Structures are given as structure tokens and as C-alpha cells.
Amino acid sequence: MSFKQELVGLFGQPVVENPTQAMVEAAFGSLGLDWRYLTLEVAPADLGDAVRGARAFGFRGFHCTIPHKVAVVPHLDRIGESAAAIGAVNCVVREGDDLVGENTDGKGFLRSLESRLDPRGASLVVLGAGGAARAIAVELKLAGAGRLTIVNRSEERGRELAEAVGADFARWSGDYAVPPGTDVLVNATSLGLHPNVAERVPVAFGPPLLVADVIPNPPETRLLRDAVAAGCETLDGLGMLVEQGVLAVEYWTGRRPDAGVMRAALAAVL
Ligand code: NDP
After folding, report:
1. Which domain holds residue 11?
2. Which of 95, 104, 131, 266 is deepest in the core (most CB within 10 A)?
3. Do 169 and 227 reside in the same domain of the chain?
4. Does residue 176 surpass a pLDDT of 90?
5. Which are the catalytic amino acids?
């Protein structure tokens, strides 16, 4: 073990078991790095002190989760392009003496999607207008997606996101019928997240369509099972979580970890 161990962390709410920690430490192991990923409970009032602490301890970076994704911004030196467009930071990277805020949620989704389809010019429907939907919509537009429709229950939130990224908006009430010609349907709501695994996402669709879910737990959601039964292709939320972890490790270490090792570590915890 080296005398000075490199550290990265997760600043968030108390957690019993942190799947991201298992995934990131598996990545460090696969790269032969004797690094540690610490899960640290940080109260909102202490966020500024926690960031100063990370500077003092020489952290290579840290993840930020709810409720710190927006509040952390004033404590950082710079913000990356997509984090600025999204208005939230989930991954902080030390560059020299600077702490730089990035957002890997949407980029992780995009990488996962690109393993199946080229988003340039594609027609996509995104369900939801919260943090995950915003990150995904921003990255899809930056990647040159064609027609993008935001579908959301709350009209104000949905319209605001659609206008911000230059997408169409549809208000969600009853079953939303996915228009013919759509290439990808993305569930970016929290519907179906453990323990509400029986929750139905109210949509009507048929093939040919790639149905993607952001829910990582359980990876096989009711929506994805329904999609398979309807003859559609599917993409699970575990892929997005793994790819955003790959990006974070790349930011912190400058090296590309083994995504397969990370997925296995994550699946073992989930
Ligand atoms: P938010 O709370 O910011 O947004 C939730 C969204 O879901 C809103 O658009 C909300 O609509 C909608 N919604 C919630 N309940 C319903 C319902 N019953 N009917 C219709 N719409 C509903 O959450 P986030 O965007 O931060 O997270 C969403 C999901 O994304 C979470 O489950 C999270 O686990 C997952 N996620 C996955 C990641 C991954 O790497 N796989 C990364 C980040 C998030 P309204 O505006 O009307 O309230």
C-alpha cells in the first residue's frame, strides 16, 4: 500500500450500502490502483465545509447526489459544458488546484444508448422532466438527436425543459401513445423503482421501437418486460449507471476501466 492513497468520495445522504462505491472500487481494482472511494454523509448546511475538506485532503474528485447536485455549484471553480446546460453537477474532478463540476448522468445514458443506436437524427420520446430527464435531453440534443418530445405529468416542469432544450412537449394524462416513427422511448421518471416494482408506466407502444429505462434497480423493470412482450428492443438502467461510473473513473484517473467488471460489481450489490 502506498503511503499517500488517492481518495474520491460521494457526498450525499446516509446510505446503508452504496452500490456506486462497490462499482467504483471494482474499477480501481481492475486498473491496479490502490485508491479508495468513501461514502460520506454531508448535511446541506455543511456542504461548503465538505468541499473545502476535499480540497484540504487532496481528493481527486467526488460524486454529489441529492440534495447537493445544484447547491455544490457555487463551491466549485469551474463547470463543464453539459453540467452548465443541465444546471446540476453529479461528478467533481480536480484539475490542478481547481475543482471542476461535470454531469455524467446524461453522458452515461448516451454512451449506453450508442451501444445500440446512433442518436444523430433519431426520433426520441423522453418520459419525465426531472433531473435525469433534463440530463438525458441535454445530451441527446448535444449529440444531434432529431425530433425530441418531452412527456410529463406536471405541465409547467415539462414545458420548461422542452423549451430549454428545443424539444416538443406533450402533457401526460392517461396512456401516452408513442407516435409511429419514434425510434426510442426513454422512461426517465421514477416509476418502477424498487420497492414500487409493480408500478405501470402508462404508455402505449409497439415495434419497431427501442424502449430504454433509467431505473437501475431492478434492472428488469415492468416496462422493459412489457416491451419485450410487445416485440420491442430494450435497454436497461444498469447500463446508464455503469457508463456514468466509467466516465467518472476516467475523469478521476485518466484511464478507462473495465465496464464489465463494474457492471458485475453493481449487479452483485443490487
Ligand atoms: P425527479 O424527482 O427529479 O423527477 C421525477 C420525474 O418522474 C418527474 O418528471 C415526475 O413528474 C415523474 N414522475 C414521478 N412519479 C410519477 C408518476 N406517478 N406518474 C408520472 N410521472 C411521475 O427524479 P430524477 O429525475 O432525479 O430521477 C428519476 C429516476 O432516474 C430515479 O428513479 C433514479 O433512480 C433514476 N436515475 C437513474 C440513473 C442511472 O444511472 N441509471 C441516474 C440518475 C437517475 P412530475 O414533474 O409531474 O412530478
Report:
1. 7-103+240-269
2. 104
3. yes
4. yes
5. 69
